[in-house]
TrEMBL record, chains A, B:
This is LacI family transcriptional regulator. Residues 6-61 form the HTH lacI-type domain. The keyword Calcium does not apply. Keywords: DNA-binding, Transcription, Transcription regulation. PROSITE patterns: HTH_LACI_2 (PS50932). Coiled coil: none annotated. PANTHER family: HTH-TYPE TRANSCRIPTIONAL REGULATOR EBGR, LACI-RELATED TRANSCRIPTIONAL REPRESSOR. SMART domains: HTH_LACI (SM00354). It comes from Halanaerobium saccharolyticum. Pfam families: LacI (PF00356), Peripla_BP_3 (PF13377). One of its GO terms (molecular function) is transcription cis-regulatory region binding.
Amino acid sequence: MANKEVTIKDVAKLAECSPTTVSRVINNSDHPVSKDTAEKVEAAIEKLNFSPNRIAQGLKSDKSNIIGVIVHDICDSYFAQMVKGIEEFISGHEYIVNIYNTSRSVEKELYAVSMLKANRADAVVFAGGALMDKEYEKKMYSIVEQLKGQGTVLLGVTPHPFDINNISLGNKKAAAIIADYLVENGHRKIAFIDGPEKLYTSYLRREGLKESLLKHDLDLEDELIFPGDFSFEGGRKAALKLLDKIDEITAVVGANDATALGLIWELNNQGIKVPSDISVVGIDDLPEAKYSYPPLTTISLPIHQLGTNIGKYLLESLTSDQITDLINIEMQLIKRKSVKKLG
Amino acid sequence: MANKEVTIKDVAKLAECSPTTVSRVINNSDHPVSKDTAEKVEAAIEKLNFSPNRIAQGLKSDKSNIIGVIVHDICDSYFAQMVKGIEEFISGHEYIVNIYNTSRSVEKELYAVSMLKANRADAVVFAGGALMDKEYEKKMYSIVEQLKGQGTVLLGVTPHPFDINNISLGNKKAAAIIADYLVENGHRKIAFIDGPEKLYTSYLRREGLKESLLKHDLDLEDELIFPGDFSFEGGRKAALKLLDKIDEITAVVGANDATALGLIWELNNQGIKVPSDISVVGIDDLPEAKYSYPPLTTISLPIHQLGTNIGKYLLESLTSDQITDLINIEMQLIKRKSVKKLG
DNA sequence: AATTTGATGGAAAACATTTTCCAAAGTCAA
DNA sequence: TTGACTTTGGAAAATGTTTTCCATCAAATT
């Protein structure tokens, strides 16, 4: 309950001038204001502790200064880093970053988008669900429909190409690098712990692995693809299921670091040695990846940097009308201790 | 660049009525509208895909629907969970949650507050720095000054009592529980890895431990307090420094889980067995705490629940004018495997 | 002296809503 | 029929800015 808001009129009264003039000094407009009055206005602003009402400004300028960020889970290290990257760039430039946590629920995604629309968000970053599912895709269309025409970035969001900046995170490539590395090290029988069912990212990583293995005349056998869900727990459970086939497999790749980490943990727990008994590799390079036993070999996707890139991109496309470059991050194989060279 | 915004006037024109009437059906006001016209309005809204401009609404109602959340680091599991808790409750109720990542920089804290003021935030949750430092405290006063009178929650923010909801997280108590438990298990020579210097939370946890140990006629010796910074890395470094005194110490408590985890990791690395050679305990109960070797005994501070509680509290204090209860979370000692019973 | 120019400032409209106040018309009781 | 009330609806003011247009005055140019 702000005790009667201080307005530009109050400032004008105190500075003995018109609101127009106050506005001019606030926005140091082209229209000249004499040194004298400008100072009086400044003094009045200072004295009244006035700050212009962004809402009123927004109404006039048809800008909300809101940037929406829709993610699956802020607690997930992956998204957290991205959000932080975006925030770093955006918040410092008078924008509001407005986050939504959707837990991969389409309803929540739709809700978030409708909120952002109602609030006339200037831009939105959608790092949402991306399920490969007819029903979902239909709803997705409706989401993207709402988003269209706004300054908007979609993050690897569906298999379908929308005519909006849809950034690929190089998931396939990441998996391919791993495949090559493993084969190079003599591995022939490779298992995969999948990500969440139907998730586009899971698909990409799985297919990337499969395709690349195929190039080496190797097969990613169906019975060596174990279900997972991108979580540590999922990795643990997968380890248990994998126990049967442990003798035939020489390496296993987790769909992400969290599952690879869970995998290693449970393997240790079961008395199976990584990498001497079996090699493990992940994708993401989470901060904790280097602290597993043994430290995890993985692919680094500099997701924080992706965030700052997105922030920068959005800022530029909102402020200057210059068309900016695509956003690119370079991935890298981080060789640690969880892969053994065979033969 | 929204292609000419659809306004309430457009709807009115299509529905052949006045903007007033449209507004009435949107907000289903007390003022009666005939079934007939209401339907025409609904149809027009549907057809034009109209959603009322929240900014204009905000200007009229002097409400922004913005809730600011200022935290040190969104990537920190601790804060991430809290933010998620708040978001869960708040976003679903037509509020915008606007986050700021301050990295414990007073300048960024001040900036965040000024942004929130300019945007007329309806409430703010400040989980900021809280340094025990004269200079900082002065600036802190100015921050709190700006915040006063708004629906605001301060999170264990400084040693000084401000007349604003300032929630204590029970840091002292958490440390006290640990002290009792350790003593109960025969430990007499206890070390502490500190949190960031000058941070109020560090102070509380350290003092809690010290005071509680004193009750058992035990001393937390100054040379057994090692510097740390709440991070895994900090824990590791502390472990290295602790090596000298490893023979005299039987237990070490980390200022938080991250440092305890780093501690355990480096101890393992150095061939020192936890808990047979030395016991370790943390505070926070991070999700990963149960996956260290051995699983970490710690205090659970249900921080996610704290977040939802805060969300609920804010929502109530913004919508109903009923005074709501204080926010409380219960902490709990989680006994896992990192503490050995002596004697 | 008349005109132009430049500097400075204000009045009022506009932005998309909600709200207050008034009006018309129908219904009911007397 | 008159008056009162109810139902329904609109006109206009108001919210805090910015912007467009106009006005004044002094200095400079003709």
